[in-house]
Amino acid sequence: MRATKLLLATVFSVTSGLALAADITVASHVANVPFEFEDQNGKTIGYEVDIINAVAKQLNKTVEYTSMPFHMLFPAVQSGRADIAIGTVTVTPKRLESVSFGQPWFDSEQCLTVATRSGIDGLAGLGGKTLAVQTGTVGEIWATTNQAQYKYQDIRRYDGNVDALLDVASGRVSGLVHDCPMDAYYIKDKPQYKIATRIPTNEQLAPMFKKNSPLIAEFDAQVTKLKESGELAKIYAKWFGEQAGAESSVVQTRPIPTLSASTN
To answer: Start and end of every Solute-binding protein family 3/N-terminal domain (predicted)?
Structure first.
C-alpha cells in the first residue's frame, strides 16, 4: 500500500511539473538595464522582455525566464536548454556559424565610459591603462582587436557591466567599452561617470535561437506584426523615453539574419 502511495505521489509530482512547464523557455542576462533586469519583486522586466511577452501573448504561449551570465546564453540555446536567449546579443557572422537569430529589433554601438574625474576624453587617453569589458561581448572583441592601436596595457573581463562600472568609479580600471544604450541608461543619474566617446560598430541586436530552430519563423512573424502595428515602437518609448527613429530596427521590418548575407 505504501509503495502504491509513493508511486502515485511520484506520478502526480511529475505530471504536475509537466502541466506547469512553460511553452517557451528564455535564457536572459538580467544585468542589462533597461533591456532585461529584475524588479524589486524579482520579476524579469525590460525592453526585450516586453517584446518576448508580447510575442508570446500573440501566440497564446507561456514564457519562463532563466537568468545566467552573458557568455552562458550561447550554450543554453545550442543545447536546447532554452528556446530563446536575450541579453542585448549582437548579430555577428561568427555567431551565425553556431546559432540562429530572429530579425533585429534594436540598433546599437559601443561606448567608452570613464570616471568623470579621470581626465580621459577619448580612446587616445587609454594608453598604458587597464580597460574593462564584458566577457563574450562585441566590446571584448573590439578591445582585443584594437589593443595595439590604443596601447592600453591590460583588458579586464567581467560577467556584467555594473561590476565593471563600479571598478571604473573606484579607479581599479580606467574605462569600460560596452553597449552604449545600456551604459548611457545606467549612468544618466550618476554624475561620477561620463561617456568619453562613442565607437560606431553598426550593431543590430536580436533574439537568439538554436541553429535552424523551428520556432524562428512563427516568432519572427509576430515581431513583424509588432513593428507594423507600432506596438514595438511603444515598447521602445516606454523604456527609453523617446521616439524610435523611423529607419531604425525598432520600426523597420528586417530580414532574418543569415551567414551568407552577413558576410557580403
So the answer is: 23-243
How many C-beta neighbours within 10 Å does residue 53 have? 16
Contact 224, 253 (CB under 8 A): yes
Dihedral sign computed on CA atoms, order 31, 234, 91, 59: positive
Calculate the alpha carbon distances from 241 to 37, 190, 210, 221, 233 in Å. Answer: 17, 18, 33, 26, 11
Instruction: Tell me the pLDDT tens digit for each residue of 9-46.
Output: 333 333 333 335 899 999 999 988 899 999 999 999 99
Burial class (CB in 10 A: 0-12, 13-18, 19+), 188: exposed
- CB–CB of 29/68 below 8 Å? yes
Give mean pLDDT, residues 161-174.
96
Per-position DSSP letters for 69-84, written without gaps between them: -GGGHHHHHHTTS-SE
Contact call for residues 159 and 144 (beta carbons, < 8 A): no
Instruction: Count CB neighbours of 20 within 10 A.
Output: 9
State how far the Cα of 179 lies from the Cα of 112, in Å rounded to an integer.
Answer: 9
